[in-house]
Amino acid sequence: MGNFSRDLTIGQQAEEYICKKLERGHKGLSRIETKCKEYDLKAPDGYTVEVKFDFLSEETGNVGIEIRFNREKSGLLTTKAIDWAHIYKLYNDWVYSIVPVNDLKAFLRNNKDYLSVVKGGDANASKMVLIKTHDFADSFSFHKIESPNYISKSSFRVFS
């Protein structure tokens, strides 16, 4: 069973980290403070980003892309974001990839015969597509996270 409070805190830290990485190109980019299913970051110029921190990638070697929750479309299938930011463990480093949502959807469509679809998350309520982290990194550019202050799943301070 997950820890919602911890996951929320780490998700917010991930959003802040990605926001700092992208703000030069999109002045005023900031986190959406209210509940918003469509995206996590928005700039005045209309640029939007969905941000995911993939804890399980460290254990599984997979990037998980949620497509359903409680049998309803969710995640990639419902986002209205322009870009998808995914933070994951690649070999010994935490990295992030910024992927246009349409490119990620096309990747899943074009590779559906080779990708696993599994149930997961709290109470197995989520349906996710799994992509090997090295395949994800080979398909989409990635950047190493500088000086992550990552300790364990119980850590509330992931990024410095």
Keywords:
single chain, 160 residues, alpha+beta, Trna Endonuclease, Chain: A, domain 1, six-stranded mixed beta sheet, 4 helices, 10 strands, 25% helix
Describe this structure in words.
- This protein is an alpha+beta fold.
- The chain has a single domain, classed as Trna Endonuclease, Chain: A, domain 1, CATH 3.40.1350.
- The chain is 25% helix and 31% strand.
- The chain contains 4 helices and 10 strands, in the order αβββαββββαββαβ.
- The protein has helices spanning 4-22, 57-60, 101-110, 133-139; strands at residues 30-31, 41-42, 48-53, 62-69, 72-73, 83-90, 93-100, 116-120, 126-132, 143-144.
- The strands form 2 sheets. A 6-stranded mixed β-sheet has the order 1-2-3-6-7-10. The protein has a 4-stranded antiparallel β-sheet with strand order 5-4-9-8.
- Strand 4 (62-69) and strand 5 form a beta hairpin.
- The radius of gyration is 15 Å and the shape is globular.
- The protein starts with a helix and ends in a 16-residue tail after the last strand.
- The model is unreliable at 151-156 (pLDDT under 50).
Offer a quick outline of the entry.
This protein has four helices and ten strands, in the order αβββαββββαββαβ.
What's the average pLDDT? Answer: 89
- The helix content is 25-40%
C-alpha Rg (nearest Å): 15 Å
Report the order of strands and helices: HEEEHEEEEHEEHE
Shape: globular
- Helical element count? 4
Q: What is the name of the CATH class?
A: Alpha Beta
How would you characterize the largest beta sheet? 6 strands, mixed
Percentage beta strand: 25-35%
Number of DSSP strand runs: 10
Q: How many structural domains in the coordinates?
A: 1
CATH architecture, by name, is 3-Layer(aba) Sandwich
What's the end-to-end separation, in Å? 27 Å
